[in-house]
Amino acid sequence: MASCLATFAAQAQDIEAGRRKAEACVACHGPSGNSVAPQFPILAGQTARYLYLQLKDFKEGRRTEPLMAPFLANLSREDMFDLAAFYAAQKPRPNTFKADPARAVRGKAKADEVLCTMCHLGGFLGQNEIPRLAGQHYEYIVKQIRDFKAGRRTNDAGNMASVAKTLSERDIEDLAHYLSSLY
User: Who's near 19: CB < 8 A, 6+ residues apart?
Assistant: First the structure.
């Protein structure tokens, strides 16, 4: 077991290998994981564990996104560790979305009500396999919450789905205003 953990740690820290392997990802996610297109997530600053697990889930069909399929088809476990290490080491930059202040206030109130920080932590910086939401693109947040609510995204052991099912469309949009305004 110790050798498995040492292998994971060594692989998860090959940032330079990840930088080279990320060249195929630049068109959508940007050169440092700070995508400018709001439908693509900002990967910079996510935890390596979260990023690796998402890549693995995409590759194994537990999470679907047709645009990702061709890029994942030939990725090895080591490739996924390297990519995760690279993006985790990058610094997220503020997005360009201009949140409506009133909607952001309502979004914060809803986040407090449904206890979002129990998983995503204070500041919405994420932890382990829970993503960073602070500063994520508005459009991406809305799509992901809608997908959890509708059952199109299910790779979270049901935690987000159970919360998302309680949210109205206004709640979802307000939460996205709030979360995208954080940095």
Answer: 86
The DSSP code sequence of 101-168 is HHHHHHHHHHHHHTTTHHHH-GGG--BTTBPP-TT--HHHHHHHHHHHHHTS--TTTTHHHHHHTT--
Helices (H) and strands (E) in the chain, counts: 11, 0
Quick check: pTM over 0.85? yes
Q: What is the pLDDT of residues 46-94, one digit of tens each?
A: 999 999 999 999 999 999 999 999 999 999 999 999 999 999 999 999 9
Report DSSP state, residue 36: S
Amino acid in the structure at residue 28: C
Reduced to 3 states (helix: H, G, I; strand: E, B; else coil), residue 22 is helix
Q: Could you tell me what percent of the chain has a pLDDT over 90?
A: 92
**Contacts of 27 by beta carbon, 8 Å cutoff, 6+ apart:** none
CA torsion through residues 161, 165, 166, 171, sign: positive
* Domains of the chain, start order: 2-89 (1.10.760.10), 101-181 (1.10.760.10)
